[in-house]
Amino acid sequence: TDTSHIRNFSIVAHIDHGKSTISDRILELTNTVEERDMEAQLLDTMDIERERGITIKSNAVRVMYTADDGETYQFNLIDTPGHVDFTYEVSRSLAACEGAVLVVDATQGVEAQTVSNANLAMNADLDIVPAINKIDLPSAHPDEVKLEIEDELAIPADDAVCVSGKTGEGIHDLLEAIVFLISPPQGDPSAPLKALILDSYFDEYRGVVATVRVFDGGIKKGDQLQMMQAGHAFLVDGVGVKRPAETLVDELSVGEVGFVVTGLKDPEAVRVGDTLTGALRPTAEPLPGYREAKPMVYTGIFPIDNKDYENLRDALEKLHVNDPSLTWSPETSVALGFGFRVGFLGLLHMEVVKERLEREFDLDLIATSPSVDYHVYKTDGTMLEVRSPQDLPDVTRIDHIEEPYLKAKVIVPPEYTGAVMQLSIEHRGIMTDMIHLSQKSVEMRFDIPLAELILDFFDQLKSRTKGYASLDYEFADYRPSELVKLDILLSGDEVDALSFIVHKDKAYGLARGLCDKLKEIIPRQLFEVPIQGAIGNKIIARSTVKARRKDVLAKCYGGDISRKRKLLEKQKEGKKRMKAIGSVEVPQEAFLAILKVE
Ligand code: GTP
């Protein structure tokens, strides 16, 4: 087994700089897919990815490239997500590679996640090929971007390849650069098997299917293998590669990336980051694996129909195979019944998981407002981790509360620094540094509570800087804050699922905003519904949903029957998405109304 013709690399970039488009062109140019089968974002296989035009999951595919030297090379290409919520997904992919193609948009230049992805690749000691994309656009300035790559990332830009994912220009040069600049994998084909599990998913028929990178040895159908950490042993049902359709092969040999059909039906048996080895002749040392992804945001997830509770648990377990960053524990709400407190890497991750649970497992769910993990120091000297407003102890028993802070980094053109500073102040941020990267970009650093960032910070940042600012952040530490619990009462009854924890200076504004928003969201009922915001026993805001007067059908005066039916169906559809809280019908958006308060 000769690895000199293998190249394993990830494509990394700031969001929307064109990774998926470049991957598409590579698949095309190497004839991996026939032209008639070509569709945009071929490697984004989930519906949500296609609809939103973003990559959420990494995807490993094998392409064969015949280079100008006449030799044929095996490329194992991993397309990765660009959004900050999914950085862990990028680092997982990098651990399976010798190289990275760092894509930078020629019209945008280096942005916040360009910096963090470049750092991840450098720390993993990978060979980096910079690719300056979108050179077909009139506003492209590739020469300036080359300078930015050298100055801001300390990556030599002589090797940078200028490409257009749209027209295909330069893609051939990029493939040649990959052959010459990225090292082939090394490893011992006759040593005991040592393979890294970088991804996996659950298949009803085949059990867990794991994507692996072989570091030593090889894998064939019928081999007896074991997971070093989890301990489960199994017989290999088959091995294969994605091209991009799953194709079975005889062997995954040293240096290669592919998938293993384990036949294991227990979703817990296969852990991403675990080392796969021979059951009879195991390797001595496991691979270092991955640092566990720490959840940043928590929400309650409840089935609309309480009968679905067990199905929801089952769905979470199966989804966990494919998304190991997911954590959950049971939660009970007076208003919503039995559900789970689920931890996410960020708000986009939360939306994606909720959507996947609903689509892939056919569940109707309600998510409650996101919360961070608060450290509540009690008067008895103990500390309580509070991830749900309901778990906050009585004020008399609280000494003080600490909340998580982030180190945030914004890269922005100089004319917008004032706007960013203002936004940061409004969100309790503290500026710590401001670095002029070049004439066109300034890096602003600040410490900011995570709870502020998860609400509307990012949208505000984009709109106040006309889309020019980019954001990156990481966890910093816990700091004391004056926080209170804001409750919402419907018809005088407190609704636990609508409570949240907020800084005391913001409580009044938020309570007012929330009461107004809920008044818009909650439909008129047969009776008047007062909405109140309260801290403890003190009412601080109120609004009212007026009683409904007319019947929906009244305006059709018995005329058009199909229109009538449509209206009734629409009403029924609406009903399904409602939850009865006491005698009030509340639509699911109400529980996330906090995200919509300006
Ligand atoms: P994420 O996966 O969400 O991080 O995005 P991505 O980096 O994969 O970007 P994607 O390939 O989805 O491209 C983002 C947008 O840029 C799409 O609208 C593409 O059509 C467009 N685009 C990509 N490459 C080029 C290019 O070379 N020229 C032009 N004009 N547009 C491009």
Automatic annotation (TrEMBL):
Its EC number is 3.6.5.n1. Residues 4-186 form the Tr-type G domain. Its main location: membrane. It catalyses: GTP + H2O = GDP + phosphate + H(+). Coiled coil: none annotated. Keywords: Cell membrane, Elongation factor, GTP-binding, Hydrolase, Membrane, Nucleotide-binding, Protein biosynthesis. Transmembrane segments: none annotated. PROSITE patterns: G_TR_1, G_TR_2. SUPFAM superfamilies: EF-G C-terminal domain-like, P-loop containing nucleoside triphosphate hydrolases, Translation proteins. GO terms for molecular function: GTP binding; GTPase activity; ribosome binding; translation elongation factor activity. It holds the Pfam family GTP_EFTU_D2. GO terms for biological process: positive regulation of translation. Required for accurate and efficient protein synthesis under certain stress conditions. May act as a fidelity factor of the translation reaction, by catalyzing a one-codon backward translocation of tRNAs on improperly translocated ribosomes. Back-translocation proceeds from a post-translocation (POST) complex to a pre-translocation (PRE) complex, thus giving elongation factor G a second chance to translocate the tRNAs correctly. Binds to ribosomes in a GTP-dependent manner. This is Elongation factor 4. It comes from Enorma shizhengliae.
